[in-house]
Predict the 3D structure of the following.
Amino acid sequence: MKITLIFPRTDPRRGTKIKNHMIPPYGLQLLAALTPPRHEVVLLDQFLQPIDTNLDADLIGISVWTGSAGNAYQLADAFRVRGIPVVLGGPHVAVLPEEARKHADSVVVGEAEAVWAQLLGDFEAGQMAPVYEADPLPLSMTPPARWDIFQQGDYVLRSAVSTSRGCRFRCEFCYESSRPNSTYRRKPLDQVLTEIDSRPGPVIAFLDNDLLSDKKYARSLLEALIPRRKAWMAMTTIRFADDPDMVALAAAAGCKTLFVGFESVSTESLLEVGKRQNRVDIYARNIRRLHDHGIMVNGSFVFGFDHDGPEVFDNTVQFGIDNLLETATFTILTPYPNTGLYKKLQVQGRIFDYNWAHYDTTRVVFEPAMMTIDELEAGLTYAYRKFYSMGSIFSRAFRPGSGALKRLVLNLAYKRIEPVWKTLDLGLSARWIRPVTYWYMSAMSHRLPVARESVQPQLVIE
């Protein structure tokens, strides 16, 4: 049997193509690994190539996120018209299964690992059910992802690993708050290390929502990574850097860059959506700690909270510049279906746009509290332009210590050169992005004296 797994694209008004070439769609890699070897599996990523709806397959599986839902449904409808059965799954289907069922022969609600083998068996027997409810399984039962189902040059990184599932927090605007039975689980460490050792290349991407929140597990992982001499990137909260010893251990273990969800520089906005683990008063101190150990910080910020007025754009951008963030990602608050934020705004009658294609974090789909829709969307564009202005890039790149060239190249490639490449539609090749990424992630000592901890004692809260 030939099974085709599809990752449909979204079309945000802002964004770069480079990130779409970094790593494969991990969930579909897992499904491929769970598929019995007697079946042929093809993985198609629409971010990399168009989807031919005339393709040959016995069964189609499509992973659906909210922003890609409309596109996914169109693809599913086209295949079903040709008589090819379609299975839909993913985060959007988990919260709106009845909507998805209109476009599918079967839907998977929850994590597909628990039901994929049963679904395939039922399909072969001609009795595939319309809905499969999947309960979370121990991650010890999750196999290593398959990497042999696409070309080596399709993606930049050749090693991407997940050590956990779920999140220890339930922020109201996050997908995790829409999952009624979200359970935070860790994969056995020896299983993670075996997967890491099986992959080539000097760089690892950890895919966890928060790699370092479980301190005991994180310490064991970091200690095990030291002799492996890999460079790696991950997501975590800024509170990780509350512990200087853990920061030093992460650096020794090969951590080069962290994606940190600051979300807001306003305490009121953070409390508004339940982001209580973030504390604005320790942001600057913890950023310095990461920088002192050679760890780059990609800050993520959200605009549109009820406490955000028009001044939020300048305040946020200036914070990023003053604290020398290597890069920053700005988004518009988006009420994904069934999240705490969605329920609140729906009760208040403030959601006016239910076109899922607009739920891409670059468009406003609800009535803001302290600014107009136009002000919020214009503010997003303004924030990117100001943060990635040449003056800002040079001031953040050429700070004391080494690594200026890498910071300069990173910013110029991310927001100056790549958009031109994208506009001209010249295409991208992971084969030439890969060596640049490896160079950017290679050892870089731009540590500053630890004595800097005492420069602003009012920020130090132990």
